[in-house]
Each structure stands twice: as C-alpha cells, then as structure tokens.
Amino acid sequence: MSTFDVESYFRAEHAELKTVVDASYTKIAEPFHRLVKLSAKSLAAGGKIMFFGNGGSASDAQHFAAELIVKYGKDRAPIAAIALNTDTSVLTALVNDYGMEHLFARQIRGLGKKGDVVVGMSTSGNSANIVKAMETAKEMGITPAAFAGGTGGKLVGLCDPLMIVASTNTARIQEMHTFLGQCLCGAVERELGLV
C-alpha cells in the first residue's frame, strides 16, 4: 500500500493556487479590463469573439463560447461567440492538408472580420498554431488577445491584451485561464447591459 499523504498533497496544491491567484492579479487586472471593453465594443458593433486552444484549453474555449451563446448567469440575449476547435471535419482536414500550425489561422481568415476579437489560450505562449492565429488576426484588424503563463513566450508583443498567469505550472495556469474566461463571460454580459 502507498504511503502517499493525500491531505498534505491537497494542502500544498491549494496553497500554490492561492499564491498564483494573488501573484497574477496585479499582472492581469489591466489587460483583463481592456479585453472586456474591447470585447463589448466589438459585440455592440456586430462583431464576435472567437476562442481557441489546444488540449485542456480547447475544452475551455468550448466552455466560454457556450457561456456566451447560451447564458452565463441569468437569461439574456445570446452573445456572438464561437470555439474554433469544435468542428472535427474542419480540424482534421486542416491538419491533414495544411499542417497543425494553420489550424486556427485559416479559420480566422474564413470566419473573422475586422473588429472581431480572438482569445487564444497557450500555457507556454509558444504553441505554433496559437502564434500563427494571432499573426493572422493582427493582419486582418482583429483584436489578438490571449491567456498565457510563464513569460508569455512568443505571444508577448504579438497579443494585446495579453494576460500572463504568474506561474510555470501548467495545472495552475489552466486553472487561472478557466477563472479568467468565466470572469470575461460575466463581465462582458454586464458591460453590454444584458443582465
């Protein structure tokens, strides 16, 4: 039988998360505020928010798009949002025909328009398909926003606003990304006066 101490492990994980939350707040408060304002402005003008990420971040992208299309808290009009990692036919064709690095960029080129907002998620900030997507968005006049961690990687100077979680632990970064996405959904519907 293992001598693993579940209680100590759980306590340490909890303590680390609290530290990351507090350390990240001052770093991400201002860019988060700008993301809310830019998103609301885009949506009010008929634009949309496109979310995307890889792995667990892909699940978050679906989650946030669903919160906006359906509802976050109270019943209200749908908010234009889409997750670019949900259509398996498009995803598999893109990877097969163009390569993984074009996975989101080509969708942005086909679905995006000037004034839209994209929100990409990369714990390292170095995912090639996220970086290429941001380059495409910027070129098209679409706001390139991202959630990252660590140093922000290649997304620094490319994304604005960029929210960098103060951690190099993938689990803690992803937890903060989920928190940020949930806050974004709640803040945007309030900024738009829908609740």
Mean pLDDT reading: 97
Range of helix content? 40-55%
Count of individual helical segments: 6
Can you write the helix and strand succession as a string?
Answer: HEHEHHEHEEH
Count of distinct strands: 5
Global geometry: globular
Distance between the termini: 53 Å
The largest sheet has its strands arranged as: 2-1-3-4-5
- How much beta, percentage-wise? 5-15%
* Alpha-carbon Rg, integer: 17 Å
Report the major sheet.
5 strands, parallel
Low-confidence residue ranges: none
Counting helices, strands and paired strands, the structural category is: alpha/beta
Protein architecture, described:
There is one protein chain. This protein is of the alpha/beta class. It is built from 6 helices and 5 strands. 54% of the residues lie in helices and 12% in strands. Helix 1 runs parallel beside helix 6, helix 2 runs parallel beside helix 6 and helix 4 runs parallel beside helix 5 (128-140). The model has no long low-confidence stretch (mean pLDDT 97).
Give me the secondary-structure topology:
Blueprint: H1 6-44, E1 49-53, H2 56-69, E2 81-83, H3 88-97, H4 105-111, E3 117-121, H5 128-140, E4 143-149, E5 162-165, H6 170-191
Parallel strand pairs: 1-2, 1-3, 3-4, 4-5
Helix pairs in contact: 1-6, 2-6, 4-5
